Amino acid sequence: MQIIGTVITGIGTVFLCLGGLGVFRLPDVYNRLQAGTKCTTLGAFLTIIGVGIMHPDWLSKTLVIALFILITNPISNHALGRASRKSGVPLCDRSVVDKADEFEEYKEKQ
User: Of the candidates 77, 90, 45, which has an alpha carbon nearest to the alpha carbon of residue 64?
Assistant: First the structure.
């Protein structure tokens, strides 16, 4: 079980590093939030589950923590993105599609 736990923890660590690289390299807030959300959610989940596999007496606690991360991380990043949009943070010049304005018009018609 040690080897399986170490491999899963290592994969999670790689995802966390890739998420950090994405946050560093991507051009605007919205792209950075997307990279950070996907990579850090999966990376933290795998890292915590790997620790739970390496220490079976901690497994129930690590499952609760991992479930909490799976629920709260995407919700909090969605709130950050929405707040950025409402406060007027612009998209990158290279962004091609912006469906948010169309959605607002659709909501107003309803």
Answer: 45
- What pTM was estimated for this model as a whole? 0.80
pLDDT of residue 9: 96
At 35 the pLDDT is 86
DSSP 93: T
Domain 2-109 annotated CATH 2.60.40:
no
Region 79-105 average pLDDT:
79
CB 60 within 8 A of CB 69: no
68 has a pLDDT exceeding 90: yes
SS3 of residue 84 by DSSP: helix
b/e string for 5-36 if b means 16 or more Cβ within 10 A? beebbeebeebbebbeebbeebeebbbbbebb
**Per-residue pLDDT at 82:** 87
Distance of CA 68 to the CA centre of its chain: 13
Q: Please tell me the distance from the alpha carbon of residue 50 to that of residue 12, in angstroms, as a whole number.
A: 8
